[in-house]
Amino acid sequence: MPTAARLVAALSLGALGWLASDLIRPLMPEGTAFGWFNFVNLGLGILCGWIVIGSRAGRGFADALANGLTGVLALVIWGFFVQSLNLMLKQSMENRYDGPFEAIIGIFRNAVDYAQYLIDPPLITVLLVGGMLTGLLAEFAARRWT
Questions:
Q1: What's the total number of domains in the chain?
Q2: Where are the transmembrane segments (predicted)?
Q3: Over its length of 146 residues, how does the chain's per-residue pLDDT go in tens digits?
Q4: For residue 83, what are the domain limits?
Q5: What's the predicted TM-score (pTM) here?
């Protein structure tokens, strides 16, 4: 059921996904082809905001902070998975895997490789503060327009 809280959470977490994507670009190796990177993370942010944060809004401001952090964690996990899956598909087209099981393991190896680049205090701070703000904005929307 569409609500104002879901809309606010989706737009806020989508914007955070875009901002985080821009912060990630300089952290990656030189020559990385990003393609639709920002748009994919924007879409993931919208989905995680709508489903994770928006559906839990209206339970109080302390829970709103936790909901925001949960939404950011979901965004990061799904971002790792989708970007790693994309890289695995590219690598599989280059015949780097001997079979499907090795390719599935490659997704998780790629995610671990990406995680090593993203251990950056400013990025982590933006994600944590942005997640909490998203949770609070969704809570405010749930209380205001219910």
A1: 1
A2: 33-53, 65-85, 123-142
A3: 789 999 999 999 999 999 999 999 999 988 888 889 999 999 999 999 999 999 999 899 999 999 999 999 999 999 999 999 999 999 999 999 999 999 999 999 999 998 998 899 999 999 999 999 999 999 999 998 86
A4: 4-144
A5: 0.91
